[in-house]
Amino acid sequence: MRSVAITLVSTLLFATIAAAAQQPTQPQLKVDSSNRTLTVSATDNVTVEPDLAILHIGFVTQPQDAKSAYADGTRASNAIIAALKQAGVEETAIRSESQYLDRDWTTKLRKYTLHQQWTVKVSPQRAAEVLDVAINAGATSSGQIDWTVKDEKALEAEALDHAATRAKANAEVLAKGMDVRLGSLIYVSNQLSSPQYPRPMPMMAMQKVGNADPPLAIEPHQVSREASVYAVFAIE
Description:
By secondary structure, the protein is an alpha+beta fold. The chain has a domain at about 50-150 and about 200-220: 2-Layer Sandwich (Alpha-Beta Plaits). Helix content is about 35%, strand content about 30%. It has helices at about 1-20, 65-85, 125-135, 150-175; strands at about 35-50, 50-60, 95-105, 110-120, 145-150, 180-190, 225-235. A four-stranded antiparallel sheet has the order 3-4-2-5, covered by helices on one side. It has a three-stranded antiparallel sheet with strand order 1-7-6, covered by helices on one side. Helix 2 runs antiparallel to helix 3. The longest helix is centred in the last third of the chain and has 26 residues, at about 150-175.
């Protein structure tokens, strides 16, 4: 019997240590008659319509010698930027993302392609129109759009406020159900989710379309932020 008791105590000790290791951010509180506490956790989220679209626009030249690929790339680059500005896109909304001359390894011939990519910020209502303008100007590698909001901090704060309100409400319900009085807040921690962007469209060559053709039918993704709150209250 002594051996069984020792084994049981060892197992419980190991389980306690393992549980503590799984929650490194939460305090280890002593539970006894002199330390009466109530702990709650709550998660809430906020979802809104986007007010900003970030387009990824670019091109890839046909394989040829390095000098020709660079020359073709220069022409394509200037044509795309000129078309975007003519469409009313502000210069400050266009930012270079990448540009490089790359060896085409699909053939034994020493051929090269020039790649260039930009991010273009526009309103969600203009996303399809601006993408159409870029493709007609030669943006053969385009299509990914990140939907977001201009004030991400405000959205995160709203999600955190909702989670905190839910945690406090849960604590009050528990206290009432346990027939105790909820006391002061002893400890609180929070966690915010990272921005969740939709899965990117594969960047692929796209054929030019005629000016008379309508742009792609694109519907914006809603933007969400999630927050979690862990709180410890005294009970009286």
